[in-house]
User: Fold these one by one.
Assistant:
Number 1:
Amino acid sequence: MKSTANISTDPLALLALKARVNSEFLAANWSTATSICNWVGVTCGSRHHRVIALDLFRMNLSGTIPPNIGNLSFVVSLDIGGNYFHRSLPVELANLRRLKFLILSNNHFEGKISSWFGSFVKLQILDLSCNNFMGVIPVEIGNLPSLRYLYLHDNQFSSSLPSSVFNISSLVEIVLARNQLSGSIPSIPFNMSSLRRIDLSYNNLTGRIPSDMFGHLPRLNLLTLSVNLLSGPIPMNLFKCQELEQLSLSVNYLEGVIPEEIGNLTMLRILLLGRNNLKGKIPLEIGNLPNLDYLNLANNSISGHVPHAIFNSSTVRVISLSLNHLSGCLPWSTGRWLPKLERLFLDINAFSGTIPTSISNASKLTDLDLSYNSFSVYIPNDLGNLRHLKQLKLENNTLASTPSTPEISFLSSLAYCKNLTFLRFDANPLVDGELPKSIGNLCTSLQIFTASYCNIGGNIPGEIGNLSNLIRLNINNNELIGSIPTTIGRLEKLQGLYLEDNKFEGSLPSDLCRLQSLGFLYLTSNKLGGPIPACLGDIISLRELFVDSNKLIGSIPSTFTRLIDILQVNLSSNFLSKALPVDIGNWKVVTIIDFSENQLSSEIPISIGDLEDLTHLSLSGNRLYGSIPELFGGLIGLEFLDLSRNNFSGIISKSLQKLLHLEYLNVSFNRLHGEIPNGGPFASCTIQSFMGNEALCGAPRLQLPPCTSNSTKHSRKATKLIEFILLPVSSTLLILALIVFFFQSQRKHSKQQIDQENSIGLANWRRISYQELHQATNGFCESKLLGVGSFGSIYQGALSDGLNIAIKVFNLEVEGSFKSFEVECEVLRNIRHRNLVKIISSCCNVDFKALVLEFMPNGSLEKWLYSHNYCLDILHRLNIMIDVASALEYLHHGQTILVAHCDLKPSNVLLDEDMVAHLGDFGIAKLLGEEDSTVQTITLAIIGYMALEYGTQGVVSIKGDVYSFGILLIETLTRKKPTDEMFVGEMSLIHWVTESLPCALTQIVDANLLITTKE
């Protein structure tokens, strides 16, 4: 009877699991009509017919683990990895004393790991990776004498490393990467003769790497301690591990020299020591490592020459020595013995001499970066032999083109590089040649071509129009002549055209209007004449337009006011005439306007008062007249205002005292009179700002006559006039305006939100290094961590100038993180709106990618909804929803490229100090073309927020965002998540609300709203 009872517990345990799991497949297969030994994923023993293995790996199961699972007392192997199980583990698991293999990886388990894990005395594999476990790693794990593989990576474990783990002599692999472990590595002998892999990377470990740990690890194959806070020298005992194939100590604070004993590691394939404080020379022995595949010593303080043997390695694929103090010449045979070399990074050093022609023998080379050195003499024409080359960077050297031809000959040779996408050779002033017609033969995949500051002369060949995929063309600050070729209009993907500081003549070709993706047009300081083509106003993608310091004539085209997303406009120092554009107020997000030194003649349009983001306005040196508008007082962000040398008359309005950020003011040489205000920016002005006017008076410090009583009398008369005449009329108009606004506010609200969008333009873009980010976050410490997402972590930081920022650091080992980084950069680069999180900068390297974003001090909507310490009233919630709706309307309809956010949820709605909502996290967003209303995707958003067709078919459209917005709105008013446990089977958040209306409204609305309403 006892045996029968025990056997019956197995079906009951499995049926309990089936009841906790959402799976139609298990519901059909695990039937009591058949033996459990025939159930999918179940293996029974041949003797007792008890369950000995349960394998449900990657069966798309969702649910929790029931306590009954502990009754499978004969189970040896339990594998439920790659599913969607959640919550904590039941303590009854400790009853599975026969377990040898426990695999729970890639789920959503949470909670702490209890001491009962130490009871699995037969356990050989423990894999809890890629979950949400937290707390300390229990010391009892050290009591597992048979454990061979320990995988705890990609969780949220904190505290220090338990030394007991390193006393398990049977261990083969230990992986604790990407947690929040702190403290030092235990300084004890690691007596584990079988240990082959140690990975403690991406934690917060501090202190020195203990020398004791390597004395008894004869079979160690991989050691990864990268991205921690480790310091001190590289321990000598490490080089006793002669089977080591991969050594990664990068992104730490290691110091001292690289020991020459590294040559003992003859099996080493990957050596990563980048981003430390190492100094001294590169040991000769590194070049003699017979199996070396990947060498990264970048971003240290290493000096001296590079050993010739490194450039003669027949096995190496990647050499990265960037950002050091290396010097000397490259050996003449560089590349001759590098048959497998794919990527060579020597940038930002002090190399000199010639670029060896033998480098062209490295036939598999895809990336070559020699920029920011002192290379001289000629750019080899043999570079064209590198047929797989994708990126070539030679900028900031003293290189020249071969003198055998007036043309830049090496460009012709690059026509054989059919994969070339990135070509830079800026700031090589000795290049001094002409662009060859063969430039049109360069690979059509070329996207970036920059050759500024190279003394290039001659014309731009018309063949440049063949580069159909070009995104950016920089040939500014050269000696180019002739006209701008009309064939540039064929570069329909071009986003940036930089031709400033040359000697171009002729008119602006109307073919430029075909560049409908153009965002940045720089034609400053040339000899261009004729009128400005009106069709430029149809390039609605334009963000920055600089055509100043030319000989342009005619008027400013009225079509320019269609550029509603323009950020900076500079038309100064031309011969433009007639009036300022009446509808200039359409430039809602413009920050810089410079029309100075022209022949413009008109009053300042009233609509200029709508430019709330304007910081720089220069209208000096024109023939403008009329009064200075009082509306200027509403431009509260204005920092620079120059109205000098015009024909303005009247008084200086006291409304300008409101411009508290104004640093430069100049109204000199006009026909102004009356009193100069004393408040605001006027308090720091000097006489230079006001000289050359008719009858100004003011404070003695301005060396002007004091204001007389006449002016006071005049002021009183003006006051009476306003009081008895203008005020009644204004009141009537105000009442009428309010009536109109009342009926039209709902229709216009969305447009007003788009008009208030704000952005940080390229001129304000900040270059922020990894070191700055590291310092801003105290080494990416846990106290600065704001949250962890699918593709990385978000930290709060403060730059050296006091600017608070949020840093989104991408975990590059997570599949899809590279794509997520690229998508988020692409989206945030192309959109800007007051209700979207603003990007300040990015930091992108081979092994580190991060976005620097505007910091939102009030956190997320999720925090305000579900924390007991916060409460939102109904007005706040509605305002937040209106902000989110405004952001979505802009993404869907406010620009040429439609953007589907695809991940709308409370945690992605962030609140600034004024509780204004900003939509963030575009990591899985999709960009839709004008004709593509839907696309297919395999990247899914959070279940519960996505529309049915998105979740089941992978179809993405802006309609999916609208659905998600509806869910978000309901959640905001009910404070109930769509993934709440109450929603099982056919019951969902939408069904719950629908069934509760209208009779049970008070039962579903957030109780906090009822309380605040009563109060």
Note: Residues 481-603 form a domain with the Leucine-rich repeat, LRR (right-handed beta-alpha superhelix) fold (CATH 3.80.10.10).
Number 2:
Amino acid sequence: MNTDRPLDGIRSIKAKLGLLVAVSIVVAALVAQIGDRAGVPTWLTLPVTIVAALGVTQWLARGMTSPLREMTVAASRMATGDYSQRVSATSADEVGALGVAFNTMAADLADADRQRRQLVATVSHELRTPLTAQQALLENLVDGVVRPDDAVLRTALAQAERLGALVADLLDLSRVDGGRVPLTLASVDVRELVEQAVAEAGVSRRGTVHEVQVPRNLHVVADVARLHQVLANLLDNADRHSPTGGTVTVSAGREGADRWWLLVRDEGPGVPTESAERIFDRFGSGDDAGGGTGIGLAIASWVCELHGGSISALATPPGERGARIRAVLPVEPRPAPAPAPPTNPPAMPYAGSFPTAVVVAPAAPTPSHLTSSTTLPAPSSTTSPATSPTTPTTAPPAVMPLATQESSVPQPVPAAAGASPAAPIGASGPTPPTASGRVPVGEREPLIDSVFGDLWPEAGLAPQVRLLLVCLGVGVLSAALLPYRNMGLALLVVLLTGGTVLWRTSERRASRWSLVTAVVCIGLASLSVLRAADWLMVLAVLLGIVLTVTALTDAKGLSSMVAGAVAWPLAALRGLPLLGRTIGATSRVSVVWPIVRTAAISLVALVVFGGLFASGDAVFGSWAGALVPELAWDSLIFRFFVGFVMGGALLAAAYVALNPPKVHRVAAPAARPVARMWEWVIPVGLVVALFVAFVVAQAAALFGGHDYVRRTTGLTYADYVHQGFGQLTVATLLTLATVAVTVRKAPQETPRERLVLRVVVGALCVLTLVVVASALHRMDLYQQAYGFTVLRVLVDAFELWLGLLVVLVLVAGIRLQGWWLPRAALVSAAAFVLLGGVLNPEAWVAQHNIDRYAATGKLDVAYLSTLGPDAAPTIVAGLPRDIAICAVATDPASGDDALAWNLGRSRASALEVGPAPAAEVERCATLRAGGLHR
């Protein structure tokens, strides 16, 4: 089986498509099932399943569509005149048949193009020689150098006749493969015809003597003019290749009752065996020593086929010299129905000389590209034999000048040095892009390049073997360190290693923004060893990803930051061409695959023989158990999934660092300001008025107290403040969006327009800060009434961050320049997470609940028991031991090794709080169910 095209043996494209879909589904289901059985989380199983299904689909579909891709590239090159391209047609389906037909067409087109060029060159040479001599003769006559006597005029006439004969040959050649050609049949005396042809040939310029050996009683039925063409061309060919003073012998005779033969023999060098068939092709002459055009024998072959006969070059007997051209023709060609008479029938030579009957002989079949024959052009409707002494009564049609014909045909692209003239597409590897990033002429733009276009071009990227190996190494490191360990030092090592790889790969690593983000990301990563709260690390990793992609892509605006974040997962698709080139480059490195192959074979040998010896000998088995860790299949699968996801994610990010997208082009287009100021002032002014009304309502509720709220709303104050917190948060977000739209649409040409913008937007932002303060006050009151939770603290932090953004907007409004706002907002968010990690939010929540317990006697023990190890020291220090036992998790750091070390878990494990005694279990369950009330 061909691993590159595994489905070549299937004969139906529909069956291939169905099999492709089925195999992809089976692979996806199998990978998902393996991950589920091994206990791999869904967020790890899903990407591996998708990649596996897409990989199988790509593997199968590439072999199915590669002939189509090759044909697209070849057709593009053929459009420029390069007919040397071929496609790999190994498939048994319809696409394979199309590839075979395409190769046949390409070969025929290449042959036709070669013949056309050879025709132009040869005809130009043949026309130039007599024209030059005739021009010199006429100039001598005009200048009086020579006198116009009979000898001079005969010379001029001979030159004109030679030109006429060449033009007649070309006209005849144009009919060769044109279909059904009419023949004017008549009774022919072969000896008389041969003697007439010999007499017209006369003594050649080499002094060749013609000898006729034809019986006098040989009569056949044939087209006289066409047979005359055969004789004239054979004699001319023999004369040109005969030595000076040589003899050309023409003989003929019967061959059976219904066939006769014609033989022309000379004393020249003869026809090589390997050229015996090719000499009857157009321009198929064995060599150019005779000065021929290579079309005479093609015309002779065509005439013989029209009569239902054949022509061939006989082998020269041993000890003799010369070529032997033998034609075998029927005595009476079989008549065929005559075609419809042409509009302007050409005049036939020798008309009236013999009784005639018109028949139509089928044209010779079009040769295949596998033979040496060549497809010839369509026939002309004009008949003008080369050697006819009769002047046609109808003028031949005008013929396009050769120069025009030459310019109307595309020129071929020269093949690269050393390349095969018919090399398959892709035989020499992919064509690298040009320096400008454009696809070379004749090359088809890759699909992925066309999808991403100018937003994410890839030009001049060499294979990155070292980078690929480093990312694979980080994946292996992740698979070895992360599974079956709590968050801690191992995660920090993996994050710092991956970050170092990205920083070294990035072309912007020396920029100020990259250095700032690197420092912030190190701080966020350090939370993995500082705090044990998983949710805090999730926020830190997500913010670290956003900071990383903004540094790699140099994103400045909000839309460009979003585009940069989306670019990371899309890099798994955009980087596939580079990954393919890199994997291909590894096969050219002599040491890489031998190392991999040796390691794989060695591992298999160790597993097989080691397992046999360990199971067969107790002592050896004890040694093996001490040296080899116990790795179950579930563990290996889980580690593979972790390593694949981590290595793949790092490889995608490395591609963004190596070839960042042009995220700045994703920015929204410049908005067109409104024509009149009141068009934006009125709507924004109404929003400001609503904010003012809300502030007044807050003041009324604040000064009116609980009784006023209950009397006007029917709600308790706690329910009142809790009811509106979410709406106030949304209002803050919408205010920021309103400010952004206002700044884009408000005109800022004059100082008055800019002043109005500052005043209105500034008032709106100040009122928004009042809303933020109201929201924070409401949440504080609600927590005092119902207790503190991590989620409520996070909501408080988010609202406080929104308030900080409003302050930043106020600062930007002073000079109406806000290009720095998106990056400032991102850094401030990271600062909030870092500050929260340092302040230990879970301990803060625990402490405030303990303070509330001290003040009110109310304590949610069940919620305290859900807090992580970070809160354990605070709980133990702030609560009585009998309550702390019920509120602290038992032995949070059990099973941790050095690579799983974490400060929060380490401090919690140092507490002298063991599991609740059996007598206390029921009491702890009661406390968790109903809480604690004093």
Note: Strands lie at 181-189, 209-213, 219-223, 247-255, 259-265, 310-314, 324-330, 356-361, 858-859, 932-933.
Number 3:
Amino acid sequence: ASNRLHSFQSLHGLNKLPALRSLSLSDPHYGDNPVCRLCNYQTYLLCQLPALIYLDTIELTSTNKQVADTTLIKKRMYYNMRIKTIKRNVTNCVRKARACFTDHVHYTNFNLNALMRELSDLEKELHLETLPPSAATLSSLPNLPNNALAIKRDCIAQYIKEKMTVLHSMTAAFHSLVATLALLSEKTIRRLVLELNTGGNIRLEDGTSADVWYTSCVDLVKSRAFVADLHVFGVRDVHVLRVARINNRYLRNRFQERMDQVLDGPDDHVKENVTKRGVTVKDSAAAATAKTGDGRVLENALEYLFYSQPPILDHMATPGGVTMREQEHAVECGLRAVDEYAGVADGGIKLSNSLAALDLPRLATALHVKGTNRIDPTELVPFDAFGWDTPTELTLPMRSAYRRGDWRLPPGVVLIAKVFLGHTRQVPSMSKLTQVQQEYAADGGDLQCLQVTKPTDPKQKCYFVLDEALILPEYLVEYEYTTSTTTPMSSCCRDGMGGPDKLAIDTTLKPDTEALQDMGEAFALTDAFYNKYKLTFAEPLLEQHLLEDRSKGLIQMDPAIARRHAVMGHNAAAAAITPAFILETSRQQDLTLMVELNLTSCGLKSLHGFIACPLVHLEMLVLSFNEIRRIECLDGLVALRVLDLGYNILRGIDNVTGLAALQSLLLNNNLLYRFDDVQPLSHLHLHTLDMRNNAICDAKRYRLHVLQRLPQLHTLDMAPVTKTELDTAMKLCTALTPLKIWTGSRLGNTRQRGVVSTLDLFQATYGKKKRPTSTRTQNATTFDQDATMFDEDGAWWSEVDELHVNHELLTQLTHLDRLTQLRVASFSDNDIAYIDGLGMCTRMEELEL
């Protein structure tokens, strides 16, 4: 009794005491714990400690235990039902989007195949036109207008390029949608599990336009956005996407108690009046402040302020997207103590009445990281005060990233908190924050907040609160900015969240009210994708099997080329490559002088004949639209630079390592299915690789896996390889490393499963290094070596009881032999082919693969 146990999670250690019969957390003579004032306190303890006889000096009856067990069973059934419903709805959303995506891809490829065949024949005819007149007279298309073939080829090539651009854009949108739906599902499930585990004392409620508090939050964000200050980033407006109301009983009780302590004073000095926000202010505190003359002011009113994590933490993330922002961490545990932010924030917990004051550093940091393509804490710390004391001006890396045009304003998440400012001191500039804080700490003064006013706008203020208990998180707001050149697509998607009738386009998605509340955003995003990429036919059964009008028109465009049949015709015995056959097909005279050879649509089944052909100067070989099963006998083509084997029946990539000069390899529309075939290509100097429409393309993160093995590529599947994409591929980790285990674990139920906060991850990454120096403080100290630091050989291995590593493309599971206390493990949505050490996990109760 009379301690500071504040949550049910802090009582989990009692489960290790099976003989416990009497427990006293509250005593009339000594006092109680904060946990005793939570809802369902008795029910929770009776379920966790069934052998308990006395609780808080009161004898428990069998009826109490029976009611508690019944309540727990009902609650578990209810939350399990909601969780299963969420998973089912997400699966239906993915299925609907995948069906739309697959139909669009198949129909596009159906048209592209016909166009590619026509383009291949055009290239062959154009090559024949370049030959000497004696050979060109054998062409099947005499007396053509000048450049007619070239014009038709260019038209078809341009249309193919346009179709591929749309196809790549749709593919990226589909994969992004699937990843977003997975994260939404996990986030919503985490909220429900948190609500269950805390007995309903921590609960998040999503708002709609029908809720008064939702409208108030939207108005508050828009009125305090100060969008004009963000003009340097091209911001035009702010759109609120989602608002969640936070109900945390412990934090609310702590806030009220701490506020009463600050306001506590002799009864004869208490003011009779009450401020408009219902806070009683003591005259004694104001009088004492007036006498000190040190500039402190006891604020008489509560303030609603914005909080966002320090900008450097926005770039702390694990590949699986399981990192939790500090705003989300505050929902469960409240804001941390000031000293825990050492190295990422100086002067106190930064809040502001201006959204721009928080977002200018966030956007500047994001743009700087995009421009430099690295995360250096020493470079990012100075951006904490970006645009505050001096006019906003982009740095050289920012301008470079902005000019490239591949940067978009990242969406934001802000915490709206009720704050009691208490004794507040005005500070002239941010450079004086640490100095003032140290002075009051040395004098033992009672100071709760430091206030800084923006020099160019007195309306905008930043508050550096020194007591985390005086901050009560109340709303979590997700929002995005729009510019003059973009439209708020995300908000447009969410406009459909007003009712089920606007969401379900077909009979596969008919969410009820509860499902709409849990996963309304998922339904809206899925329908937005469906509406954008769905195929519309007047007569679906007929038109989906016919070429679209533009493709048909390009193929029938003059000059029309008669379809070439196999050169070998009906003579199957002649289906072999010989010097005579190559000379006849290419209509040239000397194999040793041949530079290009086009054998498309020749009915070839084997390449064995190339071994007898001295094609020592051949640079381009086209073998598309044949029936080739294996790559062989090409070692003699020492000058070969381009090899086209598209539209064949290859099942592997063999015998190409000897082609030292090869730069472009086209293997689209074959039967390739193994990443092991791609690895030998790393020894070549390839810059172009096309493997579209192979079974290997259906693998998860196909492009990243290929780029990880072939980082020298410039073009993959007719799409340029971006620097960001290449960097992501090179950082792709497919093994279960100790750091990945640490970030995805739960140690004795001390934190949410599979989730680590950005601050914990930052300290684990940079904690053993020297703290970045801030231009404001010019102080260099080291991080506190607290328990959140990652140590590969630490004692935390024996404390891990849950491990969740999902959606991270793991190919092998290792280090499991060190997790002797592991009870629950989840490795869903990976590419696991090898598991080692699982036999040592003797306490395993649940394994999800």
Note: The radius of gyration is 34 Å.
